[in-house]
Each structure stands twice: as structure tokens, then as C-alpha cells.
Amino acid sequence: MTNIVLFGPPGSGKGTQAARLRDKYALLHVSTGDIFRAEIKNNTPLGAEAKGYLDTGRLVPDELTIRILEDFVNRNFRPEHKGIIFDGFPRTIAQAEALDGMLTAKNMPVKKVLALNVDDDEVTKRIIHRGKSSGRSDDTDETMVRKRLQVYKDQTEPLRGFYQSQGKFTSLDGEGSIDGVFELLCEEMDGIAV
Question: What is the pLDDT of residues 145-176, one digit of tens each?
Fold first, then answer.
């Protein structure tokens, strides 16, 4: 079982690369944003609980996030899956500890954390470009984008040390072409017993 965390700042290409890795390595793709949106859209009990937080501008608590993820994995993991790729989750050490607990209970721990390193100016440029093409106003405001990057540095960057201490963290250059970055990720994946 190959469970991977894809790590990196907003705009580093995690979603694009996670989808490619999912297809090549037969992984279940877990994106908390996508899962939250689907749970809310389908008006599930967990979705309604999450919506209550999001509608008032609060973050979904870690305990609820883990319950939603565990429910998603239980409903969607199939025998043909060779593992799970977590796209942009965990975001805090508390979430990482909760994820470890959930996966260890299933005897399927995280094997590797692959980090896409991209310079702040480059990710800012990417996010603003994405915002113009997608119409997301929060992605076109450079001040907001830089604020999100600071939140990432404050809350998520500490995960680097958390996973390094477990010998699971690998840092990769995320500034190349989509195909070039994918090739780097595949080299790492091929080195893990699938």
C-alpha cells in the first residue's frame, strides 16, 4: 500500500500532479476541498456539519475533517487502488497526527511526503493567472494571495520537520514544466515499493 502526501504552497501544481499520479499509479485521489464541496452539495450529514463552519467563515475543525476523510476513504477505496494520494492535506501538525492515527489503525501509513518547492513570486504569478482564467476573484488579488502564502508558511511549513523526523520527506523542484515536475515525482514513486 503506497500512501503519499503531496505537499506544497497554493499554486505549486499539487492538484494537476496529483491527478496525473492517481492515473499512473492507480491511487485514490483525496482532495479535502473537493470532498467538502461534494459533501455539501450532496447535503450529507457530514457536509451539513462542515457547511455550518464554512458559512460563518470558520475553518472546519480537524476532528470533523478527519471524520469526513475517513468516510470518503471507506466509501471510495477499491481493491484496484494501490494506495492513496493526499492532495494538500494535512495542513497542520495536528492534522498530520490525526491522519497518521487514522491510517495506522487501517495498517496503511503514509509512506512518503513529496514536496513541490516553488518560489513565492512564481506561485503568486501562477495563482493570479489561474484567477483571471477561472474568474475566482480571491485569486486575482495579489495581497490576498500573499496572505494565503503567509498562512501556509505559518501553519503548514512546520509539517516539513514533522515528516523529516520520520524519514518520509522528499523535496522536489516544482518550478519546471508540468511534464518535467511529473517526471521528478515519478522517479520518487518508482523508488517506493508499490
Answer: 898 898 889 888 899 999 999 999 999 999 99
Q: In what order do the strands lie in the sheet with 169-173?
A: 27-31, 83-87, 2-7, 110-117, 169-173
Quote the strand ranges of the chain, DSSP E: 2-7, 27-31, 83-87, 110-117, 169-173
* Known active-site residue 75: no
Question: In terms of CATH, what superfamily is 2-183?
Answer: P-loop containing nucleotide triphosphate hydrolases (3.40.50.300)
Catalytic: 130? yes
Name the active-site residue from 20, 91, 112, 126. 91
In angstroms, rounded to a whole number, what is the distance separating the alpha carbons of residues 104 and 100? 6
136: annotated active-site residue: yes
What pTM value is reported for the model?
Answer: 0.89
Q: Which of 24, 41, 132, 136 is catalytic?
A: 136
Which residue bears the cell 455550518? Answer: 52
Domain borders along the chain are 2-183
Is 58 assigned a catalytic role?
Answer: no
Query: Which residue out of 106, 111, 130, 160 is catalytically annotated?
Result: 130
